[in-house]
Specification:
Layout: H1 14-23, H2 29-32, H3 34-70, H4 77-81, H5 87-102, H6 104-117, E1 127-131, E2 134-137, H7 138-157, H8 159-187, H9 201-213, H10 216-220, H11 240-267, H12 270-275, H13 280-288, H14 291-324, H15 344-358, H16 361-393, H17 401-421, H18 431-449
Antiparallel strand pairs: 1-2
Helix pairs in contact: 1-8, 1-11, 1-14, 3-9, 3-11, 3-16, 3-17, 5-14, 5-16, 5-18, 6-7, 6-14, 6-15, 6-16, 7-8, 7-14, 7-15, 8-11, 8-14, 13-14, 14-15, 16-17, 16-18
Length: 454
């Protein structure tokens, strides 16, 4: 069957929307960055920070659920903003949101080599060159490029194979996670927890929570990716299930982060973990005196890495497709494969960008990933404000339940942006982050200028 230019294949169910939402959110930070999380907050500070951050984002998630139900469009943010903001503003918001997903892909392409090197030291051999003091080795680079090619091929073949793959990786991760968390609670004890916060005193406890709260938006980004796949729902899909999948993914992601930060501190003295810069798998290995336990955790991390790569790849390509079908960039980005029903040009572009960025290694990607927090804040704010503008035009009350949630979501989103752009806030952008954001914006300008002229 030959498809129209914008006719994506339709096969997704509630289960797939959940695994894409959760799978786009939870990556490998819970393994490789645990020392940083606990150094920021301590066991209770980190758990409260992630829990509070998740609660603050629920109004944003609820607003997305409402918007996806009313406007099931792969363009998501740009579709919600249509008719509310001028076209250049709508494009700018959507293009910025693409970055929130796009930057995760090369990051995972780099991270896969780092993760494999923890099990197979040969991945640290054959150094090629150095970028910003970090050495890129041939095996790590090859692993990243091969993974990028595999994800691109999977997405090219159709949304159904990608969704089945996403289901397997997500539920595989959750199964292993449940086993080692239960084992950790049995093995550990409260003696490993003190001090509960990274800093002493009431003010220190508040600061510990705040420092963790600042990173929550980046690690919770993904629940809103459900909207990017909304044009691919199977026939007969209940539109209310979009909102259910979004809220379920957000809640599950929050509980995942709260649980893992607490159980690691329960099973191993967190002060030692921070001092020795250990990852989650190393803490469990020492607590159980078993390398096998560490390998199972690394397997879970590997599954998590692949699924977050796939989830963000799907979200980025669908958002690019949604922008392209509005002729706000070159219309080639809206081209759909006649048999597989996938946005082939957007997939090729994301594969090229991910592969090229993988050559930079993790040294230069760190400041770029910081831009992701700003990018997602822009997308969330756009959606919440657009929802209120649409409600006003429809004559709905300004302060009903939906209105209150949207306004709270807008305030939270604005705070996320402020934390990154206000120079007096700890963790705000440095020059390298501004350069990275300017570079992405310049690329967006090139695409905008290449759009068809009316």
């Amino acid at each position: 069957m030959t498809r129209a230019r914008s006719d994506l294949a339709r096969s997704l169910t509630l289960t797939e929307y959940f695994t894409f939402g959760f799978g786009t959110m939870v990556g490998v930070g819970w393994v490789v960055l645990m020392d940083d999380w606990l150094a920021r907050g301590g066991p209770l500070g980190a758990a409260i920070g992630f829990g509070l951050g998740g609660l603050l984002l629920l109004p944003v998630a609820a607003t997305y659920g409402r918007m996806v139900r009313e406007v099931p469009d792969a363009g998501a943010e740009i579709a919600y903003a249509e008719g509310v903001f001028p076209r250049p503003v709508s494009f700018g918001a959507a293009w910025t949101m693409v970055l929130a997903y796009a930057i995760v892909c090369p990051w995972e392409a780099v991270a896969v080599g780092n993760l494999l090197a923890r099990v197979f030291p040969v991945f640290n051999a054959v150094p090629l060159y150095t970028v910003a003091g970090k050495t890129i080795t041939a095996p790590r680079l090859a692993a990243g490029l091969l993974l990028t090619a595999a994800i691109a091929w999977l997405n090219y073949r159709g949304i159904r194979p990608s969704a089945v793959f996403q289901n397997a990786m997500t539920f595989g991760l959750l199964a292993i996670f449940a086993v080692f968390v239960a084992a950790g609670f049995v093995r550990g004890g409260p003696a490993n927890l003190p001090p509960l916060f990274a800093r002493p005193g009431t003010a220190g406890a508040a600061l510990s929570i705040l420092l963790v709260l600042q990173i929550v938006p980046y690690f919770m980004t993904g629940f809103e990716s459900v909207g990017k796949g909304s044009e691919e729902a199977r026939d007969g899909f209940d539109p209310r299930d979009f909102g259910r999948a979004i809220l379920l993914a957000a809640i599950a992601g929050c509980l995942f982060y709260v649980t893992i930060t607490f159980v690691v501190s329960w099973v191993f003295p967190w002060k030692r973990l921070v001092a020795e810069h250990l990852g989650t798998e190393a803490a469990f290995e020492r607590a159980f005196s078993s390398r096998a336990v560490a390998r199972w955790i690394l397997l879970a991390a590997f599954l998590s890495l692949i699924k977050i790569f796939n989830g963000n790849f799907v979200a980025a390509t669908r958002l690019l497709f949604g922008i392209g079908k509005r002729d706000l960039v070159h219309p080639a980005l809206a081209r759909v494969h006649p048999e597989h029903g996938t946005p082939v040009a957007a997939i090729a572009l994301m594969a090229a960008l991910s592969g090229a960025a993988a050559f930079l290694g993790d040294a230069l990607l760190v400041p770029v990933t910081e831009v992701g927090s700003l990018a997602v804040g822009v997308g969330w704010l756009t959606t919440c404000v657009a929802e209120r503008a649409r409600a006003r035009r429809a004559g709905r009350p300004a302060l009903d339940r939906a209105g209150a949630l949207a306004w709270i979501g807008a305030i939270v989103s604005a705070a996320v942006i402020a934390m990154k752009v206000l120079p007096f806030v700890a963790g705000s952008f440095t020059r390298s982050e501004w350069v990275a954001f300017a570079g992405w914006s310049a690329l967006g300008l090139v695409f905008w200028l290449a759009r068809p002229r009316r």
